[in-house]
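REQUEST ID: PR-0412
SUBMITTED BY: lab tech R.K.
PRIORITY: routine
TASK: structure prediction, single protein chain
INPUT:
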Amino acid sequence: MLNELSVALSLSLGGVPAVELKAPATPPAEYMELGFPLEVAILGQTVGIRPELIVGTGDRGNHHRVRVAAGFSGGVHQLFIPLSLGYRAQFRDGEVVQPFVGLGVELQLRVVRALRVAEAFGPYLEGGVAFALSRHWRVGVAVTLDAMVLGASTLGVTPRALLSYRI
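STATUS: complete
OUTPUT:
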């Protein structure tokens, strides 16, 4: 890609400037991160796990991520299945303390006694902090706020404890 190349001007023997294309000193890196957050939905009264896949590109200074998550939680006589797609901005990559914020959309399905009873769709906001244990492993905490606006209208507050592995 053109934006991944740097242009350097140099003088040739004839005094005419020549253009050289050089590869960047540190080529952009693509990576994936697998997360396994344990979450407790305060308003929905469920407890479960929501595995997430986070994909990022670029160097250490790039904080843009795409987040895809699908989970399942159990509660009193119900099964809760959330499916999420969103954006996450992770700051201080490569440091021990790594705060993050994000937003996205979520589809929620609730099943009571083997019958699907409610579908809801709406936006969510998240914020949290991760702590790097090594180059690959991180632990952290986060809180998600969601407001389902289509289908069953609900509000949700979900604290999460997370463990993730960067591939």
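NOTES: The longest strand covers residues 115-132.
REVIEWED BY: pending
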